[in-house]
Amino acid sequence: MQTILVDSIPEETRIAVIEDEHVTDFFVERPMHSHLVGNIYLGRVQNVLPGMQAAFVDIGWKKNAFVYIGADKGGVNPSIHKGQQVLIQVSKEATDMKGPRATFHLTIPGHMMVLMPQSAYIGMSHRIDDEDERSRLHDIAEKLCPDGMGLIVRTAAEGQSEEAISDDINYIVHIWNGIKKRAAIEKAPAMLYRNVDLAIRIVRDVFTRNTDELIVNDTEIARRSKDLISSFAPPLAERVSYYDGADLFHEYGADEISEHIADRIITLPSGSFLVIDRTEALTVIDINSGKYVGSTNLADTAFQVNIECADEVMRQIRLRDIGGIIIVDFIDMAKPSQRLELLDRLREIARHDRTRTNVVDITALGLVEITRRKTRESTDSMLYTDCPFCHGRGRTESPETTAVKLLRRLRSLEAEAHAPMGYLVKVSTEVYNELIDSSFFKSFKNEFTAQIEVAPDESMASERYVIIQKNG
User: Fold this and answer.
1) Strand runs (DSSP E) across 97-161, as ranges?
2) Predicted TM-score of the model (pTM)
3) How far is Cα 437 from Cα 414, in angstroms, rounded to an integer?
4) In 16-130, which residue ranges form alpha helices assigned H by DSSP?
5) What are the tens digits of pLDDT across the range 187-243?
6) Are strands 265-267 and 282-288 parallel, antiparallel or unpaired?
């Protein structure tokens, strides 16, 4: 069963999804960060790149959207040309270096169905397991699907009546008709459809019959949530409750999530731990046995650590919304049966992730490959920024390294022009202690032709130093 917490203040909305007493999803949205995914625009093609089978489209944002286009034998779809007005939908948020990614394949989500106005096929949520139910829902979708369009059956449709599903489809078809009307009168670039705010998206996309309670600390969001739930499942609207206490996340044990969402090391109760490192291209997760020593033999110990860590790996991937390529370095296992069992475990957990996650295989080097769809800005990139001291490296120069660089710079300055009155050097406390205690600095002062005065500065970053030439 599931509990959803919505903690909203004017500057930020935080949402935690709790399943079986564990936080499985964490979302943050701030008004100052534009949320583009799901928005539909009438854009104008600015440039077509045949060699990349892509186009850049002006959507009225600070960077053009990048769109892949269907190609013919000549390398590009001839129907797409510079200056053309096109309907596109943002599928991936922009980053500091890249504009948003967009697609011509539009989708309009309802609670139970997703309308594909330009794609004529029926899709099905991978989280619906029962084959009879899948068949029933497929038949209903096929029957109710508007001509020339397609539908994706969402998990929330499971167990719902044909009448309820029909109402949901009519609702999203109405939205599509409104988009078409605006497209006919607007001039590009123009936004034709804005995806709803975070709290309502979560109610639309996550709230189901299995949700025990939706707890909200904002009266307006609580009202809107009840209205939306009443539109597709009136009896479930009673599960929305208003929280008027001081700290919703703290009371329900979810406050530590926001504090530790970007921790590099995750320690498990057994003593084993994960190390998570993220790069621009991929995420690497290293599994370590730590203090866990097992009770039988090395092979079984490695397997037990891997199985325990598999659950936490998939939880962290979902919790941090890690997308793209993920490489997991589990502890080596000699038995093929254990490797297969580990993969089965990972795939079983991945099936419960709302974001499409594919556990590929174990490579020849024993690494597990996972791919996960990436659409929105990662939570930690919103909550954190690169350290101004290490510049995102995750480490700073050692005091010894900074001291050596300082002495090299002093030699260079003295070679350029002798300072008869000497130099005043300001350094961090750590570098000061390194210099004073080191034999190499004593040797340096003996051979150096100018006088050097070193002063510690507690406010100075460890990698920085200031050299002042004395003038008397």
Assistant:
1) 101-103, 108-109, 113-116, 122-124, 150-153
2) 0.79
3) 24
4) none
5) 999 999 999 899 999 999 999 888 999 999 999 999 999 999 998 888 999 999 999
6) unpaired
